[in-house]
Design a protein that fits this description.
Strand content: 5-15%
Structural class: alpha/beta
CATH superfamily: Uracil-DNA glycosylase-like domain
CATH topology: Uracil-DNA Glycosylase, subunit E
CATH architecture: 3-Layer(aba) Sandwich
Radius of gyration: 16 Å
CATH class: Alpha Beta
Number of strands: 4
Strand order of the largest sheet: 2-1-3-4
Number of helices: 10
Shape: globular
Distance between the termini: 27 Å
Largest sheet: 4 strands, parallel
Number of domains: 1
Length: 191
């Protein structure tokens, strides 16, 4: 089954969203070299239909050391949130992604991505699913232990501007993780 066929199935399976004019917010092409597994699109990304079309995306592209053109090339980056639809607002931030979404759709999409060399796991939901028993006791410790997951995976904190407190308490992230992240991204894109 092609990636286009899977997209049509996702839309049919989420008719409530399709009826609102919402498209599933993700990007994937068979030649993608890097897979980004994130949380779920925010309201702005859902409305534009473009993943990471917000300040979080600006920060993420800065961490990765790539241009917008590179980032939005699905033959370079597959962007697969844990849910492809905006989950709604919670008291603080957005609601979590639906727990049954990624298990249903990710394996089918990832099976069609035959050239992925690096996977970035952004946030706790992605890390719990993809690291299973290998995640540390907290998101901070998992991200701090990023070398344990190389060369296939790099766990990251969410690039949201709302995470400024975490980043100010953890200056090692910008000093240690981001340079390695950029080097690994460059290597995956070159290979």
């Amino acid at each position: 089954m092609s990636l286009a066929d899977i997209r049509a199935e996702i839309m049919a399976d989420n008719a409530w969203a399709t009826e609102q004019g919402w498209q599933p917010v993700y990007a994937a092409a068979p030649g993608a070299r890097i897979a980004i597994i994130g949380q779920a699109p925010g309201r702005r990304a859902q409305e534009s239909g473009v993943p990471f079309d917000d300040p979080s995306g600006d920060r993420l592209r800065g961490w990765l050391g790539v241009t917008d053109e590179q980032f939005y090339d699905p033959n370079r980056f597959a962007i697969l949130p844990m849910d492809f639809y905006f989950p709604g607002k919670a008291a603080s931030g957005d609601l979590p992604p639906r727990a049954d979404f990624a298990p249903k759709w990710h394996p089918r999409i990832l099976a069609g991505l035959t050239d992925v060399r690096l996977t970035l796991l952004i946030g706790g939901y992605a890390q719990k699913r993809y690291l299973k028993g290998r995640a540390k006791s907290s998101l901070t410790e998992t991200v701090r232990s990023y070398r344990d997951y190389l060369p296939e995976l790099i766990p990251l904190v969410h690039p949201s501007p709302l995470n400024f407190r975490w980043q100010s308490r953890n200056p090692w992230f910008a000093a240690e993780v981001v340079p390695v992240l950029r080097a690994e991204v460059a290597k995956a894109l070159r290979a």
